[in-house]
UniProtKB/TrEMBL annotation, chains A, B, C, D:
<dbReference type="InterPro" id="IPR036291">
    <property type="entry name" value="NAD(P)-bd_dom_sf"/>
</dbReference>
<comment type="similarity">
    <text>Belongs to the HIBADH-related family. 3-hydroxyisobutyrate dehydrogenase subfamily.</text>
</comment>
<dbReference type="GO" id="GO:0005739">
    <property type="term" value="C:mitochondrion"/>
</dbReference>
<feature type="active site">
    <location>
        <position position="194"/>
    </location>
</feature>
<dbReference type="GO" id="GO:0006574">
    <property type="term" value="P:L-valine catabolic process"/>
</dbReference>
<feature type="domain" description="6-phosphogluconate dehydrogenase NADP-binding">
    <location>
        <begin position="27"/>
        <end position="185"/>
    </location>
</feature>
<dbReference type="InterPro" id="IPR006115">
    <property type="entry name" value="6PGDH_NADP-bd"/>
</dbReference>
<dbReference type="GO" id="GO:0008442">
    <property type="term" value="F:3-hydroxyisobutyrate dehydrogenase activity"/>
</dbReference>
<dbReference type="InterPro" id="IPR015815">
    <property type="entry name" value="HIBADH-related"/>
</dbReference>
<keyword id="KW-0560">Oxidoreductase</keyword>
<dbReference type="GO" id="GO:0050661">
    <property type="term" value="F:NADP binding"/>
</dbReference>
<keyword id="KW-0496">Mitochondrion</keyword>
<dbReference type="Pfam" id="PF03446">
    <property type="entry name" value="NAD_binding_2"/>
</dbReference>
<dbReference type="InterPro" id="IPR013328">
    <property type="entry name" value="6PGD_dom2"/>
</dbReference>
<keyword id="KW-0809">Transit peptide</keyword>
<protein>
    <recommendedName>
        <fullName>3-hydroxyisobutyrate dehydrogenase</fullName>
        <ecNumber>1.1.1.31</ecNumber>
    </recommendedName>
</protein>
<dbReference type="InterPro" id="IPR008927">
    <property type="entry name" value="6-PGluconate_DH-like_C_sf"/>
</dbReference>
Length: 321, 321, 321, 321
């Protein structure tokens, strides 16, 4: 990642907007869930005044105690802040928060920078960008990789899509909440990059689980098999960094009964987005599609709360037991 | 690979057989095809007298000119050599060469070391080992990774299954033809390791091709997408070392119209072996099985002779063109 | 089908609306494409005054010559007719025609019956029903099975979802354009029934093609194999009524180079809708999903315009040719 | 079936062998398991002297009490009978019973008719036929459809592969144990027909289960959905005769907690044979292959002993429960 970022670090700053970046003007934050809450706290820690809202009062209360100003709805936030970050569970929430009767676009000011860190369908990101542009505002999609732990430690990676001239402005804010901020291209490409990565991740993980299981049944020692794969062309992140077979690696969910990590439900959601994007663009994704179905089945069979590497356990059960 | 090999280099040599390893006694070689021929030549280069046979006289002629002794059939080779290497296209050929009317086992001497470098069903390797043991001989499976180029340069990797006490003896010979010799476990585990690696490789390659194609259609630049994947959890050998998208990397088959490399036909064959092994051991391999079918279709649609990364091209075609 | 319909024929008519059904008041028709045009003509034939619109003037001209009144946009049609049928290519078109700036809902009268015969996502049907209800109108989804030929002959089957009390009113109109009108349940279930049928159809067709191909390669005569399947538990509509293997049946697309019939592109579209519905309802559809991908690939490989039974030809190609 | 059989009933009998068919000479029977035992009893009922053997003495005892002569091994049976039927669990058993040290071929008499009703790989049937021919005997494959119930009632269907001239002789014997005897072509085509039927059956069943599940989640009543499918192009044996959804039909396993019927384990076995045949003939079977994997997973997850229509239950589980 460093090389990518260095490119941007060397870039001199040419802001095309009138938003003041030197002084820390208030930043709006909408969506104070498991991810949004620590992200907003990191903005506070970096000295940004935060103006926030969420449908759950208790989430707001916690942030208020830390110094944030809480308002009633997204429209009110848009009335007060010219930089707003949204972090919401799914496409319909994003549409509501931007386009709804009390949505951001009802009161957004010209030149406002809107950064959506939700993971949603890239085509919804594009719709939001068009709607924002009509109001004279700028919309960027900036989904994250890294979970709650990374959010707490400001170690998230942001994949950013939108007008390139605004990337510097976005990066200033996102840099307070993450370790890496990568520019991906026009609006929607941040989502696209995240969805693509997670689809390949799911395929690699299921493939690793199938392969390790087959090798073990053929008489190979799991640690030795992992070592051989990792020296060879079978190598992938799931085999060398996050091996799904208990006993092969330490410090990964498979070493801890598949607790923590990246939940099967979230993976199923992302694969659903990948499938939607593939259907919309008429792209054949045979393995991606089957991976989606496998994680869908896992969700229904008791693996919803486990790390997505538990697919090894799902496939592992022996007949006759 | 080095770490694995170091383990063995530190092992003191306890040969359990009476075969002389210090002096270079003749080595039998059966199967002088695209792979076998350069392998046998490397044995000659290392000073081993070679006694060979093949069904094609012209293959024999070339080796004869280099100093090898040519005999009529595997049985005759077994009569003259107490170390024999076989390199054959498929399971039926191996069965014929070992068990056929003029097969090795008709005249094999007690204590002979039989090393089969063919890629075949591990269950056939086990059968051959049992049959060899009945005659007082030792059978090991030692399939290779690396193609004709690696065979020429003695850079193959051998994955060896068999009695551990014989590994040192096998390694001495195989080391003349390859850069890495990895001990995998009991007979059949060499095949198992190779099959497992190639199944995961196929899954990773198709997954990478699907993902790159989807990302491109969603507006991402292919080079940037590859960079993002390779910094992230989607990373795999097919994305970072052998990217299937033309223009992303140099020096790989995708940069050369998918010529050279590892042919789609060979990948389909190995996936067939993986499928057979999975069926026999009742192991679910959903992605592995679908990968097999995809390469099978490619073989029928003009991709048989291309490198297996051409699956990108296979999936790439746009509707309406 | 007869039994289903008889149930309704025996039902006494209790219309809950003030729409006059005895006299033939004007019927609005929006979408005069390959399917909509013959449907509207059949309404004219049955003596209904038709008020129509379409984005293509030439489509309108033809209907005008037959006596229809042509208006400029859906809103104007809604201003004149209290029964409107829409027949559009996809979800976005439906949203535009109902909810757009010149859409039906801009001028719809209270009590109007809106029947959408497009094949779209059931969740969009539900949205339209909610929007219509707000305006005091009634929305029903009524997608068809049967192609252009059946539309010409008024032999379509309509699968109708919506308030049961309005079914009689819908059936009166639809009966002029089709042979069967089946009530499926609440709004969206007409779409659901169609999508479900076509997903199972696609699975059965690909399954039949794979099976016939495998049997032929194993030495079975195709006609005999079809006969055996059709006497046995492998029997399905694709094997006994629409066999995809040339030479097995007469009068089907496989007997005519896969011309006519139900196009691969349309099947791919319907499978996309099935996939979307499955993703939204978190329903695992492993074979349905793979069937979608296979038809997607076919669209890109020259089969877009052929009947969907051409999957046999797609799978059939032999290696080495 | 009638038409097929009538063809043969009208054929005048030209036996090419010297075996007496008018008088009831002894019939050998090897393999007295769940299927073989009732089959042998039906031969006894029809007045054939039976000479039998099995590895389990208790199976032999029961048949002995009914009048059969029990011998020690297949070779002894072959020494006494010139018509022999075998009914064994899998390919290795068939190879042992025919080719083993005490196998049939050790003592088979010239002109003996060997009928194997086991369900095995067609390539093994072909091997056995070649081996039998070397001894002057005739081998036919004649796998059955129909379970233990049909075996008891002599209602099995036999699919027969082998030399056509011998079909009449085979049919005489098989007609005592089944209601239908279908000639399929050369040796191996009986197996091929059975494997093909069961592969398409599995695809249709899983497809029906996915479709019914999707429809139900989209709000359709299961009985109504089944009715619509069965009137339409989605119709298949699994939807109209053996519906997998509890409550839709009576008298099928889904109405009885998936007890009885055709076990998931047997389906998985047959799909494994289909996969092997497809791999050997390089035939792409995408859905067939995935169906195999699904039944393989079911075997490992508690469905091994249930009817194969329980795939509906397997897919049905809801997330969050």
């Amino acid at each position: 990642l460093r090389c990518v970022l260095l490119g941007y670090r060397n870039t001199s700053l040419h802001s095309t907007s009138s938003r003041s970046m030197a002084s820390k003007t208030p930043v709006g934050f909408i969506g104070l869930g498991n991810m949004g809450s620590p992200m907003a706290k990191n903005l506070l820690k970096h000295g940004y005044p935060v103006i926030a809202t969420d449908v759950f009062p208790e989430s707001c209360k916690e942030l208020q105690d830390l110094g944030a100003q809480i308002l009633d709805c997204p429209a009110e936030v848009a009335d007060k802040a010219d930089r707003i970050i949204t972090m919401l569970p799914s496409s319909p929430n994003v549409i509501e928060v931007y386009n709804g009767p009390n949505g951001i676009l009802k009161k957004v000011k010209k030149g406002t920078l809107l950064i959506d860190s939700s993971t949603i369908d890239p085509s919804v990101s594009k719709e939001m960008a068009v709607a924002a542009e009509k109001m004279g505002a700028v919309f960027m999609d900036a989904p994250v990789s890294g979970g709650v732990g990374a959010a707490n430690l400001a170690k998230l990676t942001f994949m950013v899509g939108g007008v390139e001239e605004e990337f510097t402005a976005a990066k200033e804010l996102l840099g307070s909440m993450g370790a890496n901020v990568v520019y991906c291209g026009p609006v929607g490409t941040g989502q696209a990059a995240k969805i693509c990565n997670n689809m390949l991740l799911a395929i690699g993980m299921i493939g690793t689980a199938e392969t390790m299981n087959l090798g073990i049944r053929l008489g190979l020692d799991p640690k030795l098999l992992a070592k051989i794969l990792n020296m060879s062309s079978g190598r992938c992140w799931s085999s060398d960094t996050y091996n799904p077979v208990p006993g092969v690696m330490e410090g990964v969910p498979s070493a801890n009964n598949y607790q923590g990590g990246f939940g099967t439900t979230l993976m199923a959601k992302d694969l659903g987005l990948a499938q939607d994007s593939a259907t919309n663009t008429k792209t054949p994704v045979l393995l991606g599609s089957l991976a989606h179905q496998i994680y869908r089945m896992m969700c229904a069979r008791g693996y919803a709360g486990k790390d997505f590497s538990s697919v090894f356990q799902f496939l592992r059960e022996e007949e006759g037991q």
